[in-house]
Structures are given as structure tokens and as C-alpha cells.
Give the backbone structure.
Amino acid sequence: MGKDKKATIYGGLSISGVKNVILYNINIQGSYPNLGPGNCIDISNGSTNVWVHHVSVWDADDGNIDIKGKANYITVSYCKFYYINSKNPHRFNGVIGSGAANHPEDFGYLKVTYHHCWFGNLIHERMPRVVYGQAHIYNNYYTSSGDLYCIGVGSYASALIENNYFKSVDNPIEFMYNIYAYILQRNNLFDGCNGKKDGNEKGVKLGERYITTDPYTLIKDPITLNSVPYKYSLDDAKKVPDIVKKQAGPH
């Protein structure tokens, strides 16, 4: 926990093989262009019950926050993500998953919630990118104009995407890879956006390939994430910019 809104870690944190961790009220500045950790926040190796709350993260060498390696029950809330250095060729925000097509060991893990986060300046992609996992993404604010895409879903991933506000971005929501995946998206606001807005309020399944690696042989469909097993309150998408701009990041 940071003492105040100026408290800053330079480099990054590895949250590996642990349980019940809260990262709260702190800034994490990536080391780019200097040598340092690839990711500002790296949650992996079966870590569970991790809460990243009121944190600002910027200028990672590779990704601002990656959640992978059988990590499970992760919440990222009221955080601000961005980049300052436009010369960084890896302006990625974060993945949920160990890889796109060859990590069936992640089946049943990677249950992640993102809410009331601000994906801002110069982020190019992965806000987040979800593979194999199940992601609930709601009430987030996207202003990363010039991006490649915002939310990417593929490789047996399932995403429930609700009441987000996308401002002047390209491809707000898109399926990735020709591998089964599922998107249910509803009540999102697309303000001056171009490109893909995949999924709908009934849910859409896309893809043709299926896993043939034991013990996952012939798993042909992703889990369809239509609801979540916890209580939550949705803000109207129109109110999201004001709420998030005032509250995301450290106090």
C-alpha cells in the first residue's frame, strides 16, 4: 500500500505462487527504455485471490499487467493504465492467459474481473487480451486513440463485457484467432469508434479449431460466461467517464 498518491515503484512486481494479496494505492512506473522487468505487474504461477486496486501503471517494457500461469480469482479495479513514451514498440497493456493456442493447462483458471479502470494514452492493444480465461469486464473507460484493438478474445476464452465507454478507439471488441471463443457484450457505449464491436447481448461463439492435446481431446466449445457468481452494481455507461476520471489511480 502506498502512503499517498505520490508513492511509486520503479520497475515492477512479481506476484507468483501466492494467495490473498492486495496491491493498493500506488504508482508503478515501468523501466522502458532502461533494462528492467518486462511487466510492471506479473501475476502467475497459480496465484489466487489477488486484488489490484487504485493503482496507476505506465511505460512497461512489455505489458503493464499480465495475468497467466493458472492464476485465478483476480480483480483489477479503479486502476489507470497508459504509456508516455511513444517510441516503445511494445505498448501492450495486459494479457489474461499464458499464450494463444498451446496452453490448455489454463482451462478452468484465469477467472478475472476488470472494472472502473482507465485505459488511456498510447496503449496499442491488450486491454485486456483474453485467452483460455473467463473475464468479466465492466464500467471501464477507453481513450487509447490510435490503438490496434481494445478487448481481444480468443482461444477458448469467454468474456462478459458490460457498460463500458469507448471513446475514439479502433476495434473496441474483437475475436482473435480462428479458435473457439465466446463474447457476450451489452450496454456498451461506442463514441466515435471504428472497426469491430464483436459479440452481442445474446452471446456469440466464433472459431473452428479445437484442442486435441490429452487430456483435453475434443474439447470443442468455450465456457459461455453469461453471468457471474457474485453481486455487483453496474453504472450507466454514460456516467463512466466522470466516475473513472475522478477515481481511477491512487488517492
